[in-house]
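Hello Y.,

Per our agreement to keep a running log of every chain we model this quarter, I'm adding this entry. I've kept the format consistent with earlier entries: sequence first, then predicted structure.
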Amino acid sequence: MASCSYTVPDKNASGDNLYGAIICNQAYIDYFWNTYGFSGNKEYWDDGFGWEDPCNTDKPLARAFNACYLLTYSAEDFSNESWNAPILNWGRRYVRNNIDDLRSLCGDGSAIARAYSGIFVDDRVEVYLGFFYSKDVPGRAETLIHEARHMGGKSHNANFPAGSVFGGGKSGADSSWGYEGAWMYGALYLWWFFAAGARTTSAMKQRARQRGNLVIDNAFATHPGFSI
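Predicted structure for the entry above:
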C-alpha cells in the first residue's frame, strides 16, 4: 500500500461511518473474511490495506467489509436467500457463489474492479483504489454484484451509447436490460436497496437510487426505458 496514493472522502456521505460502527465485531469480521473471497489472500490485504486494522474505515479492508455488511443484511428478511425472492435477498448468495478469490490492488486508475476467468487464467476479482475511495458503500456492493455476474459467465456485449459518462462509443456496455448482464444486476440491486433496504438510512437509499439511475441512463446500448 506504500506505493498507493489516495484521499479518504467524507465518511458520513459515503456511509463508512454508519456501517463502520457496526462491522467492528469479530463475529462479522470472521464471517466476511471467510465468506466473500478474502480468505487465503492475506498478502493482498495487508501492508497498509487493513488486514492488521480491520475496523479502520480509512483503509480498504474495513471499507470492503462495509459493503459485505450491506450485502448480507440489507434485506428485511435477510435469512431468506431464495432465488425466488428479490435480488436484495439473494445478491449476497450470488456474490458468495461466484467470487472465491477477492484481491485488493492499487490499480492504474483505469478501472474500479476487474474479473478474470477462463482457461489458463487464475480466476479472481481484483478491486482497486477507486472501489474503496470513489464509491460509497451501496456502490461497492453494486460492484461486487457486477463482478460476480462476470464471474458467472456474463461479459459485456455492446458499446456505451453516445454521450455516456462511461465513454460513449467505447466497449463495456450491455446491449439491453433483457440481456441480464452485469450492469443490469448492479442496477437492479441498487433499485431494491432503494425500495426496501433495511438497517440503513434514507440518505444511503437515495445515493443508491442516484447511482442506479446513472447506470440505467449510461450503461446500456438500448436504454431500458425507465428509471428508479
